[in-house]
Amino acid sequence: MSGFNLLHLITKSPPVSLRSCSLPSGACRSKKTWPVSYTQEELRKRLTPKQFHVTQERGTESAFTGEFTYHKDEGTYNCVVCGAPLFSSHSKFDSGSGWPSFFDLLKEESITLSDDFSYGLHRVETTCSQCGAHLGHLFDDGPKPTGKRYCMNSASLAFQPKDAPLDGACGSTDGKAEL
User: Fold this and answer.
1) Cα 80 to the chain's mean position, in Å?
2) CA–CA distance, 85 with 63 (Å, rounded to integer)
3) Residue 17 per-residue DSSP state
């Protein structure tokens, strides 16, 4: 019995259901298959080194260090790479994990789920459905009504305040998305 299944027996919670993506378990889609694509050179110019590492190399930021961990403003959290809207501030909650956490998506199709077997664990990776940027992971220990915890890296998100005009910039004026 895997550790993942054993965890669910102990916690008595059902595992998160995965949407089939017709790829072998643990496989990654090529970046060329996403609806929106950017060259590595363009992304290195536009993103900070941390944002590039997290979104393109499936990295993570240290717990309790991200810009949005304790962020409370009203608005929308977008993909830092392509600007796709992902989460509303109304679904954000303090999970105590050290990363921004959300219990629901703006639209179910805004992220793609896939198996992640890194570090000898089975987790559910979340990526932007538009550009394939790594966002974080999904866990099934969130609050009601969904029971889900979308545990995101601040470096993968850009924030659009509620009353700000929609200009698609999602970043600072120097061309680098803000961290």
Assistant:
1) 10
2) 24
3) P
